[in-house]
Amino acid sequence: MKTYFRYPFVSGLILAVLFMAFSYQDGENKEQLVLISTNYGDMTVKLYNETPKHRDNFIELVKKGGYDSLLFHRVIYGFMIQGGDPDSKHAEQGKRLGNGGPGYTVPAEFVDTIFHKKGALAAAREGDNVNPEKKSSGSQFYLVQGKVFTDKELDQVDQRRMNMFRDQVFSDFMSEAGNEVYKEHYQAARKAKDQEALNGVMEEINPELEKRLAAYKLSPKQREIYKTTGGVPHLDGAYTVFGELVDGFNVLDSIAAVRTDRADRPMEDVVMEMKLLN
Q1: Dmax (CA) of the chain
Q2: In whole numbers, what is the pLDDT of the chain averaged over residues?
Q3: pLDDT at 29
Q4: Per-residue confidence (pLDDT) for residue 1, from 0 to 100
Q5: DSSP secondary structure letters along 181-218
Q6: Would you tell me the crossing angle of helices 151-175 and 195-213 to the nearest 10 degrees?
Q7: Which helix (H) or strand (E) covers residue 153, if one does?
Q8: From its phi and psi, is residue 199 left (phi > 0), alpha (psi between -120 and 50) or beta?
Q9: Residue 39 DSSP label
Q10: What does the DSSP 8-state code read for residue 83?
Q11: In which element (H, E) is residue 172 found?
């Protein structure tokens, strides 16, 4: 028993080091909270550590006051509220907004377990035709309001998602090592306009394609949340979700319900201010 007190300084040092190590670990795992204040009330979001590029970019912008006095410039009831366009700061009423940004993009960070449930914080971006890598806007974001879905509606969402990703899955399959023969036969059949040969190639590879496409279906957890809490499932895997609302859902609903013009801009400005909470 005496040995526990023989070297009190060393024991204290070891305890201090252990304490700092655990504290550091806790700090690393802690999710950053951000307060979004508006003229309709306050909302609090937490940023996911699973999407570090978006998290760090958002934190840096908040620190610099990059969102202060900007507008929620695009609002669609039952869908989402969007803001973060630098051009919206003190923008005159009626001005078309939504094309502004900080001059850079953020690489997409898709995480299978993170999706567009109600309250999801996600990054806006340009369309696939000019942005096939789905890079996010450096500043524009949206908060999901969404709606509650039925099983039938979610089945339709699954089918649309599989159709949307079918070309990508086919292209990835054909470009993989070991599938050169399929690619050669497919290209030769297309060049010769030989439909029977094309059908033969597709018949061989379709089981593998369908297996891969099944990965794009909504998970049981997603389906349950979309049937109860709601959201916008058709955006999953297409736009990066990097946080979620933890307080102020009533404010989200109030903003989503405001009157808007033909460009979905609120008739009366919804102004934001942000600050870090921890």
Answers
A1: 90
A2: 90
A3: 77
A4: 32
A5: HHHHHHHHHHHHT-HHHHHHHHHHHHHHHHHHHGGGSP
A6: 120
A7: helix 151-175
A8: alpha
A9: T
A10: E
A11: helix 151-175
Who contacts 267 (Cβ-Cβ below 8 Å, separation ≥6)?
93, 258, 259, 260, 261
CA–CA dist 50, 16 (Å, integer): 29
pLDDT over threshold 90, residue 75 = yes
In angstroms, rounded to a whole number, what is the distance separating the alpha carbons of residues 182 and 72? Answer: 49
Determine contact, residues 54/32, Cβ cutoff 8 Å: no
Instruction: Say what the pLDDT of residue 7 is.
Output: 31
d(CA 111, CA 236): 10
Strand partners, 75: 81
Over residues 103-144, the pLDDT tens digits come to 999 999 999 999 999 999 999 999 999 999 999 999 999 999
Query: Cβ contacts of residue 155 below 8 Å, gap of 6+?
Result: none
Residues recorded for the chain? 278
Instruction: Kindly list the structural domains of the chain, giving each domain's residue range(s) and its CATH number in brackets, ordered by start.
Output: 31-148+229-276 (2.40.100.10), 152-216 (no CATH)
pLDDT value for 28: 56
The residue type of 180 is E
Q: What is the pLDDT of residues 24-69, one digit of tens each?
A: 334 457 999 999 999 999 999 999 999 999 999 999 999 999 999 9
Over the Cα atoms of the chain, what is R_g? 24
Taking the whole predicted model, whether its pTM rises above 0.90 is answered as no
User: Is the Cβ–Cβ distance between 68 and 275 less than 8 Å?
Assistant: no
Give yes or no for a contact between 67 and 272, defined as CB atoms under 8 angstroms apart: yes
d(CA 91, CA 112): 37
Three-class DSSP category at 168:
helix
What whole-number distance in Å separates Cα of residue 57 and Cα of residue 70? 17
